[in-house]
């Protein structure tokens, strides 16, 4: 079939030449049965969700309006870091932390995979915008996909459709993002509920600002506005243009004196961003409002402060561990409906359930669609099961969440999952020391990416899988931001760890979740000059007296354990940091080596 005869191809609601020719080129290559230009309307949502129910991909939930349960192919449950590539012209521009292939070679491989890949399917053209639509300029993209699941997810996670296409005009810049599940259908062939291919490639062409993804339907691999655009491609744009694209939540904190501070925090995947962003304080008078739970774009404002914008419009949150005790805000967001659940368990009355939601019902359908009872050996929900829900439903959404100007950041938090060594909170001596903290932060791996779980790895700024260029250049960019800024206006940097354990290694000593407001309070008081800290070898750490523990039933010795700076543990950490720096030695900025030497010196 020639492109001219593909139904829908010529019904483009745009005159944008580059967009039109790219869509035509992809249609010719992938040969779908028809092309649909997505408008983002309620009618489109209705039509596609009905179709997904019909196809068996979605089960309509009884207890939550306009909400659906989906289970993936058991092999397609997380990001695939091993198949994720940065295809820069030169390998050194991808660096040792990324997989690299030359763009010409990668395109050759992927063109063959894409050839005819949409046969028997519909090709959807999804114009989207990351960040506010009235930003100047708006950050536009177009995802072409053959997955209805992806289209409806993009309805929630991004601003998309006709209102966005208007901003394309005749010649606006946009990021082309091509996605196929990689399962063509023969005439009459019955589709499976979750098509995906064993061969997967998640590839980025940073010089061309382009994304090609093949073989997976899972969030971070398939919703290309998210990690692919807003982190990997955007981090390259940010390097070139002097801003930051980061794996960070954004929250607004109001003190009892009505002082407002905005905080951004970078924790690796499945390490607590959504929970902190939606925190419900347990100390009287403090209020948290949410602006974002996963990605922050930060640039300097005219006043010299760093302003953050969340490029997304929805939450793609980890389900397990979420309930009314840990994260009531998330529960109140999803209970309003309009939510997609993937790889959680289904109750007998068509509601959702996952581990951490209290006592399990006597019977469930698990994420592999098997009968499940509390005696079953495997969890009912996949540990990386997710809810996908509109931000607009968040009961504590900050009104300024959609302001293109962004919000001025007072503090940046780095943090990871560490059973030992890293104290509850630690203030950097200055920006450069803070960048060192971010550059050397470490965390146990989680189920958000395929591979082993619980292995400690260095994860600079929680961006290891998301830096679209050389990690050393990325760290240099962070240092450069500090050198060019008015130091007094830069956010202060903190390193936190909610996950430290007692000597047995079994119990997490800090209660975490809502109680993390006590750490936020100390941080804000530090910024306002109203709290003290102890100078230690690793940074400025409060004693238990310096943190508001009123009304907290955690034993004081546990809090002390959480805050402890153990010089021996830190001495044991040094070789691990050295190993990491050796790995990136080709591009490691000198000041970070100096910081390591200074740390060694302070440890004695
Ligand atoms: P991504 O969406 O993968 O980027 O993850 P995230 O950083 O938003 O992680 P999220 O907030 O969803 O938390 C992941 C898991 O960590 C959930 O199972 C939470 O219940 C758990 N968690 C979050 N905050 C805390 C905390 O303060 N203490 C403890 N012990 N667990 C937490
Ligand atoms: C993460 O893995 O950090 C996520 C989920 O936030 S995904 O969108 O799949 O990347
Ligand atoms: Mn994330």
Automatic annotation (TrEMBL):
Catalytic activity: oxaloacetate + GTP = phosphoenolpyruvate + GDP + CO2
Pathway: Carbohydrate biosynthesis; gluconeogenesis
The enzyme's E.C. designation: 4.1.1.32
Residues at which GTP binds: 270-275, 386, 417, 513-516
SUPFAM superfamilies, A to Z: PEP carboxykinase N-terminal domain, PEP carboxykinase-like
UniProt record, GO biological process: cellular response to glucose stimulus; gluconeogenesis; glycerol biosynthetic process from pyruvate; oxaloacetate metabolic process; propionate catabolic process; response to lipid; response to starvation
Domain of life: Bacteria
Record CDD domains: PEPCK_GTP (cd00819)
Binding site for Mn(2+): 227, 247, 294
InterPro entries per UniProt: PEP_carboxykin_GTP_CS, PEP_carboxykinase_C, PEP_carboxykinase_GTP, PEP_carboxykinase_GTP_C, PEP_carboxykinase_GTP_N, PEP_carboxykinase_N
Binding residues for substrate: 79, 218-220, 269, 384-386
Main localization category: cytoplasm
Sequence ranges assigned to domain Phosphoenolpyruvate carboxykinase GTP-utilising N-terminal in this UniProt record: 22-239
Region (Disordered): 364-385
Signal peptide stretch: none
Cofactor: how and how many bound: Binds 1 Mn(2+) ion per subunit.
Pfam families on file: PEPCK_GTP, PEPCK_N
Gene Ontology terms: cellular component: cytosol
Cofactor field: Mn(2+)
Positions of the Phosphoenolpyruvate carboxykinase C-terminal P-loop domain: 243-602
Subcellular location(s) of the protein: Cytoplasm
HAMAP family, sorted: PEPCK_GTP
Assembly mode: Monomer.
Family, per entry: Belongs to the phosphoenolpyruvate carboxykinase [GTP] family.
Protein name: Phosphoenolpyruvate carboxykinase [GTP]
Organism expressing this protein natively: Prauserella isguenensis
Organism lineage string: Bacteria, Bacillati, Actinomycetota, Actinomycetes, Pseudonocardiales
Gene of this entry: pckG
């Amino acid at each position: 079939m020639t492109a001219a005869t593909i139904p829908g191809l010529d019904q483009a609601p745009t005159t944008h030449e580059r967009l039109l020719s790219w869509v035509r080129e992809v249609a010719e290559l992938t040969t779908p049965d028809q092309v649909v230009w997505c408008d983002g309307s309620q009618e489109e949502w209705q039509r596609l969700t009905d179709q997904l129910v019909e196809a068996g991909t979605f089960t309509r939930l009884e207890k939550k309006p306009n909400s659906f349960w989906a289970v993936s192919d058991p092999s397609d449950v997380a990001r695939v870091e091993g198949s994720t590539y940065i295809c820069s012209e030169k390998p050194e521009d991808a660096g040792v932390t990324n997989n690299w292939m030359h763009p010409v070679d990668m395109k050759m491989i992927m063109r063959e995979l894409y050839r005819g890949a949409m046969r028997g399917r519909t090709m959807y053209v999804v114009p989207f915008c990351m960040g506010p639509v009235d930003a100047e300029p708006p950050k536009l993209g177009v995802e072409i996909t053959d997955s209805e699941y992806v289209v409806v997810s993009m309805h929630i996670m991004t601003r998309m459709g006709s209102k966005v296409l208007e901003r394309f005009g005749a010649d606006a810049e946009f990021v082309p993002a091509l996605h196929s599940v990689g399962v063509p259908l023969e005439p009459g062939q019955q589709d499976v509920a979750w098509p995906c291919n064993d061969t997967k490639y998640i590839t980025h062409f940073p010089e061309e600002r382009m994304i090609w993804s093949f073989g997976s339907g899972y969030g971070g691999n398939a919703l290309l506005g998210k990690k692919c655009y807003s982190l990997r491609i955007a981090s390259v744009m940010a390097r070139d243009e002097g801003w930051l694209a980061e794996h960070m939540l954004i929250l607004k904190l109001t003190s009892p004196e009505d002082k407002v501070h905005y905080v951004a925090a970078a924790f690796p995947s499945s390490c607590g961003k959504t929970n902190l962003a939606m925190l419900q304080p347990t100390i009287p008078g403090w209020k948290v409002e949410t602006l974002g739970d996963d990605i922050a774009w930060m640039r300097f404002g005219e006043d010299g402060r760093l302003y953050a914008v969340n490029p997304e419009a929805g939450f793609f949150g980890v389900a397990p561990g979420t309930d009314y005790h840990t994260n009531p805000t998330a529960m109140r967001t999803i209970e309003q409906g309009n939510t997609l659940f993937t790889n959680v368990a289904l109750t007998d009355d068509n509601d959702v359930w996952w581990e951490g939601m209290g006592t399990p019902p006597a019977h469930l359908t698990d994420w592999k669609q098997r009968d499940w009872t509390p005696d079953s050996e495997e969890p009912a929900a996949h540990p990386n099961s997710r809810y996908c829900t509109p931000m607009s439903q968040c009961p504590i959404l900050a009104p300024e969440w959609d302001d293109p100007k962004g919000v001025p950041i007072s503090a940046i938090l780095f943090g990871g999952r560490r059973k030992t060594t890293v104290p509850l909170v630690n203030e950097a001596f200055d920006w450069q020391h803070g960048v060192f903290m971010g550059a050397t932060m470490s965390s146990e791996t989680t189920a958000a990416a395929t591979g082993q779980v619980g292995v400690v790895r260095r994860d600079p700024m929680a961006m290891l899988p998301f830096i679209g260029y050389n990690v050393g250049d990325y760290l240099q960019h962070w240092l450069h931001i500090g050198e060019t800024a008015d130091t007094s206006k830069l956010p202060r940097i903190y390193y936190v760890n909610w996950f430290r354990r007692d000597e047995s290694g079994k119990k997490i000593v800090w209660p975490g979740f809502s109680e993390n407001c006590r750490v936020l309070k100390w941080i804000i008081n530090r910024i306002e000059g109203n709290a003290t800290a102890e100078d230690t070898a690793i940074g400025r750490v409060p004693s238990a007296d310096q943190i508001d523990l009123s009304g907290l039933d955690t034993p004081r010795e546990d809090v002390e354990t959480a805050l402890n700076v153990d010089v021996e543990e830190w001495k044991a950490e040094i070789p691990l940091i050295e190993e990491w720096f050796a790995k990136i030695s080709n591009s490691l900025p000198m000041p970070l080596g100096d910081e390591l030497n200074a740390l060694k010196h302070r440890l004695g």
